[in-house]
Amino acid sequence: MSFKAITYNADGSIWNTRTELIKDTAAIYDLYFVSKNFYTLPLPPAFQSGVYKSQKIENLSSGTNQSQRTQNLAYDEFGRVSSFGATGCALCTDKGYQFDVHYTVNNQADIMTGAPESVSAGKKYEIHYYPNGDVRWIDYLVNGKLSVQISLL
Q1: Residue 87, number of CB atoms within 10 A of its CB
Q2: Are 1 and 29 in contact (CB under 8 A)?
Q3: Contact 148, 141 (CB under 8 A)
Q4: What are the boundaries of each domain within the chain?
Q5: First to last CA, the chain
Q6: Shortest CA distance to 3 belongs to which of 15, 21, 16?
Q7: Are 15 and 148 in contact (CB under 8 A)?
Q8: Are 140 and 149 contacting, i.e. CB atoms less than 8 angstroms apart?
């Protein structure tokens, strides 16, 4: 399995292209496979829960007061993650993230949009699938402009 990532400049021109051969032969090439093997994505632990429905869960990570983060997951009435995120911390380089999740008719996460008024506002992941459920490509947009496109080849 090969991956290709094209990174774009703000003007839409190509800044960098990277292709990698991944020797891991997974049964499913899903978002977790992409994140583990090629391009780190902000993802919840799972997109589906058999336990939580129409609930919001918050967990405080371990660590000192300055390195602790609060992680949150909101579930819809079907037990699907509808929103997820994590706060930044005093020692963290990133300021956290918050994404809303939309699904296809096949219950696959197809759009993750930065929640309004969060540090992720203006960021969006659009996920496209093959008919068998494998990820075909992912578009990462910032303020409506394509920033990175990740493809399985």
Answers
A1: 19
A2: yes
A3: no
A4: 1-42+128-153, 43-119
A5: 7
A6: 21
A7: no
A8: yes
- Long-range Cβ contacts of 111-118 (<8 Å, 24+ apart): 112/42, 115/83, 115/85, 118/85
pLDDT tens-place values along the chain, 153 residues long: 788 999 999 999 999 999 988 877 766 788 888 888 888 888 998 999 999 999 999 988 766 666 678 889 999 999 999 999 988 777 777 678 899 999 988 888 999 999 877 778 899 999 999 888 888 999 999 999 999 999 988
How many other C-beta atoms are found inside a 10 Å radius of the C-beta of residue 35?
A: 14
Q: What is the largest CA-CA distance in the chain?
A: 46
How many C-alpha atoms does 151 have within 13 Å on its Cβ side? 8
Write down the pTM of the prediction: 0.82
User: What's the count of helices (H) and strands (E) in the chain, helices before strands?
Assistant: 1, 10
Beta partners for residue 114, in sequence order: 99
